[in-house]
């Protein structure tokens, strides 16, 4: 099960992976939603740090270069416009960007966060935002299909195939069919966009585990190089 940054995905993508690219973007507040500037006493102009000189853009033009591109709202409120479509979207909402392109604009009262995921998938059965924390961990499980996590918040330990891995924002987990994964003791609150692809084999949906569903059958090859890429360093015990 590879764990890949965006750059590693471009360089090390395996043939069975249906994701070609992903990125997280922050959209700034539109001028109408920014607080008015305070009067400048004695000719002094307030300065609020580097963000003031380099604010986030309030909109983004999208033009797919892959067969599929999906816009997912992580936080805030945005408006998406494309040929014949205009809709307002909030957290967990998603839309397929047409090949003709589209435009996403922050229309909320705070910053907005979005994920843009590109690829060549044939079927997505679930698009969700997962949220786990120390008191609500993610059970150890596998699937009858591929699943992808795009982590955008939090640092935690991923359990995979008897090993532990350091997860952080900006990493993509590509869980091939039958590869066990979860986070049974996350150190902190973490969130990610999850995409579950079409089922095969026994076509069972949801989390599958050995106790209820039997041992998994791995049907995707993963080179050892990618398995150990982000493996957690072992802690040496000394007397």
Envelope shape: globular
Q: Please compute the radius of gyration using only Cα atoms.
A: 21 Å
The CATH class of the largest domain is identified as: Mainly Beta
CATH homology superfamily of the largest domain: Jelly Rolls
Would you give an account of this structure?
The protein has two domains: 19-119, Jelly Rolls (Sandwich); 124-227, Jelly Rolls (Sandwich), CATH 2.60.120.10. With 239 residues, the protein is mainly β. It contains four helices and 17 strands. Mean pLDDT is 91; it is low at 235-239. It is globular. The chain has helices spanning 6-12, 50-53, 210-213, 224-227; strands at residues 3-4, 19-27, 59-62, 68-75, 77-82, 85-90, 94-96, 102-106, 112-119, 124-132, 138-141, 145-153, 156-160, 163-167, 172-175, 181-183, 190-199. A five-stranded antiparallel sheet has the order 1-15-12-17-10. It has a four-stranded antiparallel sheet with strand order 2-9-4-7.
Overview features:
mainly beta; Jelly Rolls; 2 domains; five-stranded antiparallel sheet; four-stranded antiparallel sheet; 8% helix; disordered C terminus
Describe the protein's topology.
Elements: E1 3-4, H1 6-12, E2 19-27, H2 50-53, E3 59-62, E4 68-75, E5 77-82, E6 85-90, E7 94-96, E8 102-106, E9 112-119, E10 124-132, E11 138-141, E12 145-153, E13 156-160, E14 163-167, E15 172-175, E16 181-183, E17 190-199, H3 210-213, H4 224-227
Antiparallel strand pairs: 1-15, 2-9, 3-8, 4-7, 4-9, 5-6, 5-8, 10-17, 11-16, 12-15, 12-17, 13-14, 13-16
Short structural summary:
The chain has 239 residues and is mainly beta.
């Amino acid at each position: 099960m590879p764990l890949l940054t965006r750059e590693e995905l471009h360089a090390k993508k395996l043939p069975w992976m249906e994701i070609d690219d992903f990125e997280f973007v922050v959209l700034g507040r539109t001028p109408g939603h920014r607080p008015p500037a305070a009067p400048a006493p004695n000719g002094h102009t307030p300065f609020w740090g580097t963000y003031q000189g380099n604010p986030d853009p309030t909109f983004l033009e999208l033009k797919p270069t892959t067969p599929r591109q999906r816009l997912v709202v992580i936080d805030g409120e945005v408006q998406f416009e494309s040929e014949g479509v205009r809709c307002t979207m909030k957290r967990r909402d998603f839309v397929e960007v047409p090949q003709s392109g589209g435009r996403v604009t922050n229309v909320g009262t705070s910053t907005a966060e979005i994920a843009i995921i590109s690829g060549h998938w044939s079927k997505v059965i679930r698009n969700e935002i997962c949220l786990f924390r120390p008191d609500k961990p993610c059970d150890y499980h596998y699937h009858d299909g591929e699943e992808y996590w795009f982590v955008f918040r939090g640092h935690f330990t991923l359990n995979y195939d008897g090993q532990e891995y350091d997860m952080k924002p900006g990493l993509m987990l590509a869980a091939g069919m039958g590869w066990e994964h979860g986070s049974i003791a996350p150190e902190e609150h973490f969130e990610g966009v999850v995409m579950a692809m079409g089922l095969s084999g026994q076509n069972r949906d949801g989390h599958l585990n050995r106790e209820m569903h039997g041992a998994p059958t791995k049907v995707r090859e993963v080179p050892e190089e990618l398995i150990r890429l982000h493996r957690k360093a072992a802690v040496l015990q000394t007397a």
